[in-house]
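User: My collaborator sent over this chain with a note saying "see what the structure looks like." That's all I know about it. Can you take a look?
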Amino acid sequence: MNRIIKETRGLTLIEVLVCLVAITTVFAMIIPALQAGKQYSKSEICLSNLKELTAAIRIYAEDNNNQLPGPLTAAINHHQTIASYASSGPPSPEELEYYLGRQLSYRLRPIMGDDVDRAIICPTIAGIAPDSHFHDFNSQNGRSIFPFNYTLNNWGNNGMGGSGFVALPRVTDPRFYFGNQPYPGSPDLPIQPQVIGNFNNPSKEWMIADAWYRDHATPISELQQDGPYQSGWSGEALPYFAPHFKRGSTKMYTDPGERKAAAYRTHETKSDGLTNTLFFDGHAAAVPSRTFVVNGFKLISGFPGTVNPKLTEQSQMFWDVGTWE
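Assistant: Without extra context I'll predict from the sequence alone. Here is the result:
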């Protein structure tokens, strides 16, 4: 009887290496796609948040003679941080009402319930600048900056008087869409919010946007800032680049020089991401950064800002001849 012998042969070293190379190549192709998909998912959640907020704002306005919520502060602070205002002791009922009343989340809570706490958190910025980042910034810089991811198109001091804040460029016309509730102890009086429809270009004028900030070296106040947030004093706690679809640094810069250098590199390499933006007509979109060009000279680049500016005479000639490209 013939005996059938089966030979079992193992893989050679070369075959093993070929398999490893193939597997590594596959992972190299898959991982970027997974990362891109994750970023896309975060962006979609952010845009969904903005649409929820605009729906609630419209309901609020319908119940209040078409008046926008307010008077508010521009930063849409996370509601759960309200207690941190009382660092020196429990606030009085009047103080608590004042602090709460400045927050968009407080005004929309009767409409959205606790969902408002979720809707005011951008998952992308929460990864770049988490709440702990803001608290660390407070302790290292002595500035009371409370966590936030979104900002309102709402401040309006460009040297014409008003809120007393500095470096608040690209003022809206009419000013302070959501009114203005000054900080406690300020000599300024509250400014009531505007009526919906009391301004031009609702499809182009932004209402809420991803909060990021970097300043720009120019003596003209309306051209001093590239991001949608208007205050350099607290803007330093924010990202210095448009956050969506950009692999930006999560480093917290406490040295202004280092931060400006990083922002300058973003300018030079054109490596901004996209800014998720909600407009007054109700649509939300991811907006790319653009450059403001006057007679061939690039004066500013970043988030375009208001299309309904209230300008000083100094800057009027620039805005009349300049274009966003």
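A starting point for your reply to your collaborator: Confidence is low (pLDDT under 50) at residues 158-166.
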